[in-house]
Amino acid sequence: MSVEDHVFKALAAGADLVALARPIIYGLALGGAQGVTDVVNHLNHELKITMQLAGTKTIADIQHTQLFK
């Protein structure tokens, strides 16, 4: 299970905010500010793919019923 899958599940369960520390810290440690930017861009891209696979176009479209599909 990937980070973006956990983000999607948290949003579907009703979360208004999802905090991510480990990937951001790894990006910072390995690449400084650019590493953090790269990690955020990668997570954003992967979350968009997860959303497309679930049939959602926006974060607001994510519903708890998608946890059981």
TrEMBL record:
Stored PROSITE patterns: FMN_HYDROXY_ACID_DH_2
Higher taxonomy: Bacteria, Bacillati, Bacillota, Bacilli, Lactobacillales
InterPro entries, per database record: Aldolase_TIM, FMN-dep_DH, FMN_HAD
Domain FMN hydroxy acid dehydrogenase: 1-69
Keyword DNA-binding found: no
MF term (GO), any: oxidoreductase activity
Keyword Transit peptide: no
Signal sequence, start to end: none
Keywords attached to this entry: Flavoprotein, FMN, Oxidoreductase
Name of the featured protein: FMN hydroxy acid dehydrogenase domain-containing protein
Organism: Weissella paramesenteroides ATCC 33313
Cofactor: FMN
Database matches in Pfam families: FMN_dh
